[in-house]
Amino acid sequence: MSDDAALVRAAVAGDRAAFSALMRTWRGPVFRFARRLLHDDAAAEDVLQDTFLTVHQRLSTLRADGSLKSWLFAIARSQVLMQRRRRVGEPKTYEPMESLRELGVDAGWGEPMDAQALTERLEHHVLFEKALKRLDDEEREVLLLRDVQGLSGEDTAEALGLTLPGMKSRLHRARLRLVAAVKKGALR
User: How many domains does the chain have?
Assistant: First the structure.
């Protein structure tokens, strides 16, 4: 049995220290997830607070066999979406979607390093952050949940409300677009 499961049971039973321990464990990952999606520390802090308020209110609804991690990030993602809706007047730019072939060529298909390996190596690198900002929201979400936060494929799909094949397709495109953005940024 995981430590999180024991903490969840204790927190549901009213143990404030257990809930505080859950918050300490997940505060950083949730904040980083929100900040990378919103590009704003203050907005990410609001998401963090709203996420844990929701978790506190609904912790008893977490299935005994459910993944706390995927449930928590699904709540955080929902809070990010609500935060985005609150932003009024911010333009959203749209660019034509490249074909997978064009993305693959830009990402360096056939070169020794694959997209996933590059993504993992660049997690804390400035170029990664710049490239991450070039992705659309859906691509950034799937990449952050799967490759940065380390959720399983099933948990990522669940957190995003997607089928597993749908999540894999979105993840593949996000990885290609990220690598292409990194390569373009590195050449400039």
Answer: 2
Structural domain includes residue 116: yes
Whether the full predicted model's pTM is greater than 0.90, yes or no, is no
SS3 readout for the chain: CCHHHHHHHHHHCCCHHHHHHHHHHHHHHHHHHHHHHHCCHHHHHHHHHHHHHHHHHHHHHCCCCCCHHHHHHHHHHHHHHHHHHHCCCCCCCCCCCCCHHHHHHHHCCCCCCCHHHHHHHCCCCHHHHHHHHHCCHHHHHHHHHHHHCCCCHHHHHHHHCCCHHHHHHHHHHHHHHHHHHHHHHHHC
pLDDT tens, position by position, 70-96: 999 999 999 999 888 876 655 454 455
Residues 49 and 106 in one domain: no
Asked whether residue 92 is assigned to any structural domain, the reply reads: no
Q: Does 78 share its domain with 129? A: no
Question: In this structure, what token pair is assigned to residue 16?
Answer: 């404030």
- CB contact set of 37 (below 8 Å; sequence gap of 6+): 80, 137, 140, 141, 144
* Residue 170, domain member (yes or no): yes
d(CA 171, CA 156): 10
Q: pLDDT tens, 133-176?
A: 888 899 999 999 999 899 999 999 999 999 999 999 999 999 99
Angle at which helices 68-86 and 3-12 cross, to 10°: 70
